[in-house]
Design goal:
The protein has 11 helices and 14 strands. By secondary structure, it is of the alpha/beta class. It has an 8-stranded parallel β-sheet. A 3-stranded antiparallel β-sheet has the order 1-2-3. A 3-stranded antiparallel β-sheet has the order 4-14-13, with no helix packed on it. Helix 1 (about 55-65) packs across helix 4 (about 85-105) and helix 6 runs parallel beside helix 7 (about 160-170). The longest helix has 18 residues, at about 85-105. The chain is globular. The two termini are about 20 Å apart. The mean pLDDT is about 95.
Length: about 325
């Protein structure tokens, strides 16, 4: 067995700016890990995230430090102790899953003991903008769907109800979820939850900054709250208060292995599950499609923001994302 690890950073321009409460981006900065063994190549992609102290250079360096371990036969199981959870481990974990699947001539979901993923409706994100622009984006998505779409509305601290009302008017049949990206205070959440309920909002994602979760303990919210920045892995579940759902992202859990563990642990605690993503290519989304069966919310629209995607890529059609072809991943 001869194994080599290749690591590279890539930039994928967006077709329009993507804005959230913390800022704006015009390109997806990703890192790809490739493991070649006897002519087969396993691939994984991650998104270094500054909010978690990650940089492209730091993730590349962390992966390159694993070159000897990969050459010596690093396994998915051993990797969990080799790197901390985060973007670097995600890329390497998914590359190992892909390689093992190719060597076995089986699909990754079969190796994981899961049913084959089916096409599933994904949330489509409405970037933070003026209410009129958000309404126009919602109308465009609704017009292209064959059924009421699931819209994820990015919000800041200002004009919250106005923005949601504009989206609701533009897409009256849509399912709505909102994401504050840690941008609210407890007082703002208490003030907004009833108006948002009246507008048909089904879920509020990460309203308060991570670390303030205990403030939610006494809140009686008619809308389920979802932990994103507050929940990276299984160890975080015991610290959550007031949340009824967790957003499982491979860049937080450190790959498919950690994500499978988090989904199982969340379910055991009676929590609902959302499968989420960063803005990235289909290679980053593909492993997450294995987790979509039974998830209350799937949010894997990252590639839809790109000017172009990989070839081959995931298929997106009429608001749904389809399982990955083996030539892409797994």
């Amino acid at each position: 067995m001869t194994r080599t690890l290749r690591v590279r950073a890539e930039t994928w321009p967006l077709r329009r700016p993507f804005a959230i409460a913390r800022g704006l981006k015009t390109a997806a900065e990703v890192v790809v890990a490739e493991i070649e063994e006897d002519g087969r190549v396993g691939r994984g992609e991650c998104v270094p995230y500054g909010r978690y102290g990650e940089t492209v250079g730091g993730v590349v360096a962390a992966l390159e430090d694993c070159t000897a371990a990969v050459a010596a036969g690093l396994t998915v199981e051993a990797l969990q102790a080799n790197l901390p959870a985060g973007a670097a481990r995600n890329a390497l974990d998914c590359a190992l899953w892909d390689l093992v699947a190719k060597k076995a001539g089986r699909r990754a979901w079969d190796l994981a003991g899961l049913a084959a993923p089916a096409p599933v409706r994904t949330a489509e994100t409405i970037s933070l903008a003026e209410p009129e622009a958000m309404a126009a984006a919602a109308a465009g998505i609704a017009a292209a769907a064959d059924a009421p779409p699931l819209l994820k509305i990015k919000l800041g601290a200002d004009e919250v109800a106005e923005r949601v009302a504009a989206v609701r008017a533009a897409a009256p049949g849509a399912r709505l979820i909102v994401d504050a990206n840690e941008g609210w205070t407890l007082a703002a959440l208490e003030r907004l939850v009833r108006p948002l309920e009246d507008l048909g909002v089904e879920m509020i994602e990460q309203p308060l900054p991570a670390g303030q979760d205990t403030d939610l303990a006494g809140l009686s919210s008619p809308i389920i709250l979802c932990a994103d920045e507050s929940c990276h892995g299984v160890a975080d579940l015991d610290r959550l208060a007031g949340y009824g759902m967790v957003n499982v992202k491979l860049d937080k859990t450190g790959g498919l292995t950690g994500a499978l563990e988090l989904v199982a642990a969340a379910r055991a605690r009676g929590l609902a599950v959302m499968i989420g993503c960063m803005v990235a290519t289909s290679l980053a989304m593909a492993p997450a499609t294995l987790l979509t069966a039974g998830a209350e919310i799937v949010d894997l629209d990252g590639p839809l923001w790109l000017s172009r995607d990989r070839d081959p890529s995931l298929r997106y059609a009429e608001g749904r994302v389809y399982p990955p072809p083996p030539s892409l991943w797994g």
